[in-house]
Each structure stands twice: as structure tokens, then as C-alpha cells.
Write a structure and sequence with these properties.
By secondary structure, the chain is α+β, with helices and mostly antiparallel strands. It has a single domain (3-277), classed as Gcn5-related N-acetyltransferase (GNAT) (Aminopeptidase, 3-Layer(aba) Sandwich). It has helices at 3-7, 33-50, 57-62, 99-105, 117-120, 141-157, 178-188, 216-222, 225-232, 263-277, and strands at 20-22, 25-29, 74-80, 90-98, 114-115, 126-134, 162-170, 197-198, 236-237, 242-244, 249-257. Strands 1, 2, 3, 4, 6, 7, 9, 10 and 11 form a 9-stranded mixed β-sheet that branches. β6, α6 and β7 (162-170) form a beta-alpha-beta unit. α6 crosses α10 (263-277). The longest helix has 18 residues, at 33-50.
């Protein structure tokens, strides 16, 4: 029996999202305020402690990376059950915001950088992804694959039609990222119907060199794992990069139609989902 048959006739918005396991590691959605606090502490350690983001006084005092979107989002967790099954075991996270959740705030997070009107107008269920990070001790293939499996499971569980978000290149000098930005524009630009565009006052041209001068293999190897992951799922980028001085990054908008998500992810977790629902 397929997952679609299992969920037929059920209210997917009230169905529990099951945990998926890989050895000691598990991935599921946060269930408690303490787990969300652990997510915010992890994000602070990674974004501010490792990546050089600039903290304001409140962020420094709390040692937490948090904003209003945390209150409406689902927080995907990677847990190390060898440490614990709750907040003490949080070692990875991804913030997921569905259309109805964003409506509670009146906007998506990405709207601060991009005109996402084509995405908002897209029929069906849409999902914004952001604030992804993994503890330095867990940046292995197993943990990253589990995080992607969690996203894929969430997409099928809630029947998401399109997902999007901002992905980051480290640093704020677009000329130093000329190869990556140029490559993404000429090889992965989103179709006009779902193409975000950087807001005029934040727009940074991505076409920074002749595409004929690109060493595609070298550039692909230099892309951050998160962006490479989106591209492997058939993802596209929007038009224009955005400099985020607070987080010391250059952002690109990413769009993925979920019908392009490869079948291998579905096969990996279908049995676990079926067992959880039976």
C-alpha cells in the first residue's frame, strides 16, 4: 500500500508526523518549547559562534538565534538518542513554514529579500525552508541525509507542491563569489512562472563573468552542501543575489517543485511512515 493510499481520507494537518530513525539518530518535528529553545541555541552556536554573524544586544544576552517566524514554524530536528530523546539530543535543524503559518504573520521570511509573488500565487501547498544548521560534530553524510529524508517525508506527509527559501554562500563580496553566482544563473535559473527576484534595493547581479570562462566542475565542488542538495532535487534559483551583512552571507533564492523530488527518498522512508500510521 502506498503512502498516498494510507493517508486517503485523513486530515493531514492533524495527523502526527512520525520520527524516522537511522541508528542513534532520528528526525522529527519539535514537540515542545524546550526543543525549540534547543534549536535556537544550536542556531546561535553555528551562525554566530562559527560563521561570524553579527549579534544584537538581545541575541548576545540570550545566546539564542530567534525571531517571530519561530512561533509559527515547524522545526525539523535531528536528534542523537545516545544523548537523549528530547532537547538535550538536538544536533540539527531546519525551519519549515507552510502557507497557513506564514499567513499568521502576514508574510514569509524570504519576502524581506525577494519578490516572491509568483510563488505565493502558485496553486497548492507551498513550504518555505530556512535556518538550516547541524552541529559541527555531526556534519557527516548520515546526519545530512537524514535531514533531507526528513524534509522529503514532510513534503509527502503534508502533500507540499512547491518548496522554496533562501540559501547562503559564505561571505559578502559578490565578486569573490563570481563563479558560483554566474554558474547558478546560467545553469539553474527558475522558470518565469515561479521565479523570485531580489527586491530592487537589495538586488545584486548574479551574472558577474562570462559563462564561457567558467570551470563548471570546480564551481560545483565549491557550492555549499545545502545548495548542492537543492540542485540534486531539481531545484532552481531566482534572479539576483542579496547581501546579508548580519549573517555574513550572500543569499540566493531557491525553488523546488516537489514532483521533481527523486523517488529514492520516497522508497527510503515509505515503510517507516506506513508502520507509524498502522
Amino acid at each position: 500500500m502506498t503512502y498516498e493510499q494510507l493517508i486517503a481520507g485523513r486530515d493531514i494537518d492533524t495527523m502526527p508526523f512520525p520520527e524516522l530513525r537511522a541508528g542513534n539518530l532520528g528526525v522529527r518535528v519539535a514537540r515542545t518549547a524546550a526543543e525549540i529553545d534547543a534549536v535556537q541555541a544550536l542556531r546561535y552556536r553555528v551562525f554566530y559562534g562559527e560563521m561570524g554573524a553579527t549579534a544584537d544586544a538581545a541575541t548576545t544576552a540570550s545566546l539564542r538565534d530567534k525571531d517571530a517566524f519561530d512561533e509559527v514554524a515547524d522545526h525539523l530536528l535531528v536528534l542523537d538518542h545516545a544523548i537523549g530523546p528530547g532537547p538535550e539530543g538536538v544536533v540539527g535543524t531546519y525551519r519549515l513554514i507552510q502557507r497557513q503559518a506564514a499567513a499568521r504573520l502576514g508574510r514569509f521570511y524570504s519576502a524581506d529579500e525577494y519578490d516572491i509573488a509568483p510563488i505565493v500565487a502558485f496553486p497548492g501547498r507551498i513550504l518555505e525552508l530556512g535556518r538550516s544548521c547541524v552541529d559541527v560534530a555531526y556534519r557527516s553524510r548520515v546526519a545530512m541525509q537524514l535531514l533531507w529524508r526528513g524534509i522529503a517525508a514532510y513534503v509527502f506527509h503534508y502533500q507540499i507542491d512547491l518548496m522554496f527559501g533562501c540559501a547562503s554562500l559564505h561571505g559578502t563580496d559578490p565578486d569573490a563569489l563570481a563563479g558560483e553566482l554566474t554558474y547558478l544563473y546560467y545553469n539553474h535559473l527558475a522558470p518565469p512562472a515561479v521565479r523570485p527576484r531580489a527586491l530592487p534595493h537589495r538586488f545584486v547581479e548574479m551574472r558577474r563573468m562570462s559563462p564561457h570562462l567558467l570551470d563548471a566542475k570546480r564551481v560545483q565542488a565549491q557550492l555549499p552542501p545545502l545548495i548542492k542538495g537543492y540542485l540534486r532535487l531539481g531545484g532552481f534559483v531566482g534572479d539576483g543575489a542579496v547581501i546579508d551583512l548580519q549573517f555574513n552571507t550572500t543569499d540566493v533564492a531557491v525553488v523546488v517543485k516537489t514532483d521533481l523530488v527523486t523517488d529514492k527518498y520516497y522508497r527510503h522512508y515509505e515503510r517507516q511512515l506506513r508502520d507509524a500510521l498502522d
